[in-house]
């Protein structure tokens, strides 16, 4: 094994820097899909743990050589798979520093340098989205854990109104909570609800674009008197549509229900005057979930959990221990009091860097550019022979089909195989669709034109 004195930081970091720059500089022209599978990468990495170690620089070089054929170019401005953003340069640079500083971002007094940046990022997010300035913000891994955080705070709060304390009594024997969701909510809402012990939800019908039907929600709410949580959606996975938030929130609050909004990518519509109408009434909800690694294009992972009642969030997530240098007060709380984790990296710092780089006007321009790019893709796809755009394109999602499921699937495979552009397949309204999710900060009119040309080239080979 190499002696620590012979294995300096410089070699490993120099190799990492060189390979990272090479990857970034070739990203726009790199074929998007990976060229090697996981088993081939494991072979190249070396399957057996060696008896003797290698110098750090050699290990990093081995990793880059072996893994890069299996890396998908998700940061490409023509990558539209799932809902995945790229990484802005300042956010990526900040993320490198976060790893270098290696702070366990749990305690405000112990790690003030990174906590200050995270707190500012949270304050700026509240400002941009028009949410209550007194809300608490926690940085988690992604929207799944942001939904979990909001739902746990909701669970404890609605049970507390009945006189039940989950902190003291647990969940066994507690009043059953009615959890209402729209028929087209994201599957991670159900996942978060299961982890929170809420069980199967009550499903409320939605319209053809996936928007919850207020009349049906009101009827479902009036069918009982048990504690209730309503989950609404800002940005449907397939259509991009938004639940009628103002009307639905009013119905829920009329019966004392807590309202949580799942807005992994769509919550950012609130940042732009052009799209803000899509989330009218958003600020009246009780909790919200979103991702910075989608619309804001910061490196993975960075979800954002927001709860209007700071005391409710801290009551559900907070912990105390004699060894922690706690500074919890009415004005400030420790980061670990707002999220499920005690040990975590300072994932909010790249969000600060992205927002500081763009400013308010740049953030608005980013949201508008994503929406404009989706609209252009929809128009262009609709002009291709046999292609139907299936959704009302209101934000950043476009779903298209080519006649039968078989032809749609073949078109999708041909597009991805060429490597110029990447869109993921799904099923919506019981048919195969090719879904373009515009989430990358660098996607613009030029990249849209290249995307549409690739989509057109993929058509001739489809029988």
TrEMBL record:
<dbReference type="InterPro" id="IPR015421">
    <property type="entry name" value="PyrdxlP-dep_Trfase_major"/>
</dbReference>
<protein>
    <submittedName>
        <fullName>Aminotransferase class V-fold PLP-dependent enzyme</fullName>
    </submittedName>
</protein>
<dbReference type="InterPro" id="IPR010977">
    <property type="entry name" value="Aromatic_deC"/>
</dbReference>
<dbReference type="InterPro" id="IPR015424">
    <property type="entry name" value="PyrdxlP-dep_Trfase"/>
</dbReference>
<keyword id="KW-0210">Decarboxylase</keyword>
<keyword id="KW-0032">Aminotransferase</keyword>
<dbReference type="InterPro" id="IPR002129">
    <property type="entry name" value="PyrdxlP-dep_de-COase"/>
</dbReference>
<dbReference type="Pfam" id="PF00282">
    <property type="entry name" value="Pyridoxal_deC"/>
</dbReference>
<dbReference type="InterPro" id="IPR015422">
    <property type="entry name" value="PyrdxlP-dep_Trfase_small"/>
</dbReference>
<dbReference type="GO" id="GO:0008483">
    <property type="term" value="F:transaminase activity"/>
</dbReference>
<comment type="similarity">
    <text>Belongs to the group II decarboxylase family.</text>
</comment>
<keyword id="KW-0808">Transferase</keyword>
<keyword id="KW-0663">Pyridoxal phosphate</keyword>
<keyword id="KW-0456">Lyase</keyword>
């Amino acid at each position: 094994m190499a002696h620590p004195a012979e294995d300096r930081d410089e070699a490993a970091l120099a190799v990492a820097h060189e390979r990272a720059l090479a990857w970034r500089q070739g990203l726009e022209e790199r074929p998007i899909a990976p060229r090697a599978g996981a088993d081939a990468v494991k072979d190249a990495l070396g399957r057996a743990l060696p008896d003797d170690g290698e110098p750090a620089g050699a290990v990093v070089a081995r990793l880059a050589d072996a893994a890069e054929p299996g890396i998908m170019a998700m940061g490409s401005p023509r990558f539209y798979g799932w809902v995945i953003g790229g990484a802005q340069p300042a956010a990526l640079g900040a993320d490198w520093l976060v790893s270098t500083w290696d702070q366990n971002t749990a305690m405000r007094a112990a790690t003030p340098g990174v906590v200050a940046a995270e707190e500012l990022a949270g304050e700026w997010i509240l400002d941009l989205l028009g949410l209550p300035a007194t809300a608490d913000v926690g940085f988690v891994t992604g929207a799944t854990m942001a939904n979990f955080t909001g739902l746990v705070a909701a669970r404890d709060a609605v049970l507390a109104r009945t006189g039940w304390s989950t902190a003291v009594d647990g969940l066994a024997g507690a009043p059953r909570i009615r959890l209402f969701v729209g028929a087209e909510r994201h599957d991670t809402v159900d996942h978060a609800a299961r982890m929170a012990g809420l069980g199967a939800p009550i499903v409320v019908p939605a319209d053809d674009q996936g928007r919850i039907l207020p009349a049906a929600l009101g009827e479902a709410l009036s069918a009982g008197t048990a504690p209730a949580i309503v989950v609404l959606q800002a940005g449907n996975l397939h259509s991009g549509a938004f639940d009628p938030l103002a009307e639905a929130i009013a119905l829920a609050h009329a019966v004392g229900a807590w309202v949580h909004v799942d807005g992994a990518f769509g919550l950012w519509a609130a940042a732009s005057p052009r799209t803000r109408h899509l989330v009218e009434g958003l600020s009246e909800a009780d909790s919200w979930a979103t991702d910075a690694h989608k619309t804001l294009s910061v490196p993975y992972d960075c979800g954002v959990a927001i709860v209007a009642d700071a005391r409710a969030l801290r009551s559900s997530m907070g912990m105390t221990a004699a060894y922690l240098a706690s500074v919890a007060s009415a004005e400030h709380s420790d980061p670990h009091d707002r999220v499920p984790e005690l040990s975590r990296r300072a994932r909010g710092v790249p969000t600060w860097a992205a927002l500081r780089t763009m400013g308010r006007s740049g953030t608005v321009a980013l949201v508008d550019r994503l929406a404009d790019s989706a609209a252009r893709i929809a128009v262009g796809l609709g002009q291709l022979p046999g292609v139907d755009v299936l959704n009302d394109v209101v934000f950043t999602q476009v779903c298209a089909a080519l006649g039968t499921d078989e032809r749609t699937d073949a078109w999708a495979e041909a597009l991805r195989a060429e490597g110029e552009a990447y869109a993921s397949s799904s099923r919506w309204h019981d048919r195969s669709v090719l879904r373009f999710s515009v989430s990358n900060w660098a996607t613009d009119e030029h990249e849209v034109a290249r995307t549409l040309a690739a989509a057109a080239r993929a058509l001739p080979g489809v029988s």
